[in-house]
């Protein structure tokens, strides 16, 4: 992905030097080694905050110590800033040309270790997420290393896909989709709530595909192999893939983000069409 030397976003809230969590301690109660890794991996993309489990196992403890910001952290921050700036320009254009409205971009919170949000604590266990309570995206810069080493989803465009996916949730919020869907989920059965959650996430994948298509057309940032990186990331974070990698038999009724095939297909739909109307997962005959 071609991103160096381009404009960064001003909508970054950097909390990395404000202190964070310190990993350490020995796991107890049988949660350690592969078991601990499985909990973390599941937590990243299933929307489950497993921080209490890790804290109880000595995995993460609160600390007011100043965290070390490495060169890799700084490069990740610059990369995120440029990617966020790209989403701002693209969604401003999409809102104007396709939706006849004004796009108000989100703030992206960079942190390292642990921080707080209106949606709960953010840590390496929660992974990147969008909080509609304050309309901010939360991202631990160390997450990109986890993507590559533990989830098998390496590459800078895979990282950009993650940023674009979380921004897509803000797009849903701006359009009123997220509020309506979550209001329904609050009253629905667990099974129906999970089904709507899958629709939300697959639409965000589709919106991410729109971003990828327009980023290539507007900035010429997509290089050979980039789309494969994004599709591989979508595959690796499919609910079925994550459950298999955690040593479990996939349980479709528990899926909250969609299968690997679904996530790849909806990203591809957005990328091929570039049209918001093509991303209506809520009315689709087939998810």
Task: Write a structural description.
Helix content is about 50%, strand content about 10%. The chain is globular and about 45 Å long. It is an alpha/beta fold and about 290 residues long. The chain has ten helices and eight strands. Residues about 20-65 have low confidence and may be disordered. The chain has one domain (about 10-280). A four-stranded mixed beta sheet has the order 1-4-8-7, with helices on one face. Strands 2-3 form a two-stranded antiparallel sheet. The longest helix is centred in the last third of the chain and has 30 residues, at about 190-220. Helix 3 crosses helix 5, helix 5 (about 155-175) packs across helix 8 (about 225-235) and helix 8 runs antiparallel to helix 10.
Total beta strands: 8
Provide the spatial order of strands within the biggest beta sheet. 1-4-8-7
Low-confidence stretches: 20-64
Number of domains: 1
Structural class based on helices, strands and sheet pairing? alpha/beta
How does the SSE layout of this entry go?
Blueprint: E1 12-14, E2 21-23, H1 34-46, H2 51-56, E3 60-62, H3 71-99, E4 107-111, E5 114-117, E6 120-123, E7 129-131, E8 136-140, H4 143-149, H5 156-174, H6 177-187, H7 190-219, H8 226-236, H9 239-245, H10 260-273
Parallel strand pairs: 1-4, 4-8
Antiparallel strand pairs: 2-3, 5-6, 7-8
Helix pairs in contact: 1-9, 3-5, 3-7, 5-7, 5-8, 6-7, 7-10, 8-10
């Amino acid at each position: 992905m071609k991103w160096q030397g381009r404009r960064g976003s001003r909508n970054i809230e950097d909390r990395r030097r404000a202190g964070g969590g310190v990993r350490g301690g020995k796991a107890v109660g049988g949660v350690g080694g592969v078991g601990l890794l499985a909990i973390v991996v599941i937590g990243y993309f299933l929307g489950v905050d497993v921080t209490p489990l890790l804290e109880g196992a000595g995995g993460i403890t609160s600390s007011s110590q100043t965290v070390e910001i490495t060169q890799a952290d700084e490069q990740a921050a610059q990369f995120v800033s440029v990617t966020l700036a790209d989403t701002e320009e693209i969604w401003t254009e999409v809102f104007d040309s396709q939706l006849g409205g004004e796009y108000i971009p989100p703030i992206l919170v960079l942190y390292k270790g642990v921080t707080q949000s209106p949606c709960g604590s953010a840590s390496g266990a929660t992974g990147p997420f969008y909080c509609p309570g304050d309309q901010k995206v939360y991202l631990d810069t160390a997450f990109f290393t986890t993507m590559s080493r533990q989830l098998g989803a390496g590459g800078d465009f895979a990282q950009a896909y993650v940023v674009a996916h979380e921004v897509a949730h803000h797009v849903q919020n701006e359009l009123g989709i997220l509020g309506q869907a979550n209001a329904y989920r609050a009253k629905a059965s667990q099974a129906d709530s999970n089904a709507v959650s899958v629709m939300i996430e697959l639409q965000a994948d589709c919106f991410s595909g729109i971003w990828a298509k327009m980023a290539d057309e507007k900035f010429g940032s997509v290089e050979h192999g980039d789309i494969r990186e994004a599709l591989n990331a979508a595959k690796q974070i499919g609910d079925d893939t994550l459950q298999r990698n955690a040593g479990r038999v996939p349980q479709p009724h528990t899926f909250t983000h969609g299968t690997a095939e679904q996530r790849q297909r909806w990203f591809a739909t957005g990328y091929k069409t570039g049209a918001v109307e093509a991303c209506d997962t809520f009315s689709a005959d087939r998810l």
